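One record is given unchanged without comment:
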Amino acid sequence: MSSTRTRRSASERVAEIGDAARAIALQSGLSAVTLRGVAQHMGVASALVAHYAPSMNDLVAETFATIVGAELTELQQVANAQDGHSAALVSMLGSMLDEDRADVTLIWVQSWALGGRNPALAESVREQMDRWRAFLAGLLAEGRRAGEFRFDDPIAIAGQVLGMIDGLNAHSLVGWQRPRERTELLMRSVESMLGLSSGALIDRMP
């Protein structure tokens, strides 16, 4: 009895390679997304991966954008599910510092280092950082219009807050300070930046 092997289409192979790259990145970081690593994960020859993904720099950049873009969509949903802008902010910031996101944190941290040698990744990182800042600035601006927050420049505040989050998440990778301490440090700083009373955000933390 003879059997025939179904030949995958080009689009199916590209999707399969993308799925493999994302799985590798979430498990071991962006630095593990290599030609050999993707081929081994798929159980195919490196030449096949190279045929459908001729630029590993582009594949790494696309992998980064897909993963952090999905995270942003998830956190937007988290914020939108809350009652009030302060509650939305606390929920979102707390989620961004959640240790359960260590896999994505590693991807962010590595993206800044690898982006120095990968122009496609650097461009993708800048685009995603702009998206995150725009979302947070919009949330802050809405809270200001509602009278919950008091500040002048939502873009500047959003940039400062994201910078603190990036730093604290990098610290978490080496276990510097306990998770609750890092989160409270962020909340206290944000309270001051938004003209809130001490404890206004910390008291809303679970």
The mean pLDDT is 95. Residues 37 and 43 are 10 Å apart (CA to CA).
